[in-house]
Every structure is written in C-alpha cells, then in structure tokens.
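Changelog note: in this version the structure field was regenerated for every chain. One regenerated record is shown below for reference.
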Amino acid sequence: MRAFSFVGFSFLVLTAMIGASLQANAQAQTSPAMAGWKRGATHRIAQHLNQSKPQLAQAINSLGAKATSARTVIGLQINRDGSVRSRHVQKSSGRAALDKIALQVVSGVGAFPPLPMGSGADTMTLSVPIHFENRVGPGQWRRAIVLHLYRHAAPLLRNNISGTVVVGFSLSRSGQVLSRGIRKSSGNKSLDDSVLRMVADAGPFPTAPSDIPGNNFSFSAPINVNALRPFF
C-alpha cells in the first residue's frame, strides 16, 4: 500500500512539448539556398513557439486530469515574398479546442524571408507539429486528490462548528474509497463524523496514474473548519 500525506503538496505542473519539424512541399527544389531558408524558418517558428508556452500550457488544461497527450499539425503556406498566404490544420489532435489554440499560436509567427531565387516554387508549405503533453506524476495526483476532497467540504461550514480533523482514507486504483478513519480527532464527535461522511460522499476520486504502482493507496489529510472563514 502506498501512503501519502497532505501536509504539503506540489502545484500541478503542465508542460508543452513543442516541435518545429518543417517539411517543404514536393514542388520546391532542394538546394543549399533552400536548405538554408528552411533552417532559418525552423528557427523562427521554434523561437515563437517557445515564447508561447504559457498559452500552450493553458490549452493542456483541457486534456483532463489523466496523463495524456495530443498532437496537432499546422500547415503554413508561404508566398514567394515570404508573406503567409494561409494557415490551416493539416492533422487534427482530435480535440477542437487544442487545434484552435495551436492555430492561434502559429498565426502569431510573422513574415518569413523571401524564398530563394531559382527555387522553382511560387509557394512553400511548411508543416508545424505541436505536441501537447500532460504528465501526471505522484505530486500532481496527490494535489488532485486533496482538491477533490476539499471541493466536498462546503457542507461542514453549515454545521457552525470549528475545529481541525486529520482524516485517513484508502483508495483503489479506480478512485473508490476502500476505508476511512479519524487519525486525529477535533475533540468534537459531530465534526469527526461529518468529515468521515464527507470522505465517503467524495468518492470516486481521480484515478491513479498508470506509472504509479500498487492497487490501493493510503492518504492522510488535515481538514480545518472555521465557522467564520474556511481556509480552503
């Protein structure tokens, strides 16, 4: 059994893995000048995407609490003078919200240098893959568990009772409550009983990430109840 304590917990970390792997259309001739142009375009787009990580991180919120990933490929059609003729989703992530954010982010890339002379192409199509990834580790999962529990604590305030209870409970991998008990009493049986009911009513909790071993998990959480001002 894995044991966790909620005396302190880390903030959820959202990461955006960004790639700018560019592919020219088949009409363009391969030449040293064109290869140099593509390297410059790759660098320009990669810089812009790295500066856009906060915006991309917001999009990852829509991926949900489970560890998951998605990939959107945006196509850029570049005119001979370097201006962007069009932007479109070449390959969807399957999530419209992520595709929209990816398209908006890539749309912020400005004009490119003109295409090299003698390239044999009136336009150049660039494919820009953007990888969204949300890896949920033990720290992030613990925070998801405690936030889920605290969202069910509002009824405690209606009892007009103050006190601190340390409650222990165990969960299955699927988030079902297997057991619960008072680790440290508030000194008020009514409040203790209310906290135990709260834990039962809060199930099911977020499921355990696939990379965390074990079939059941033990948790301990302090619940502070103030009749005038809740701390959560």
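Spot check on this record: The chain has two domains: 15-134, 137-225. The first strand starts at residue 2 and ends at 5.
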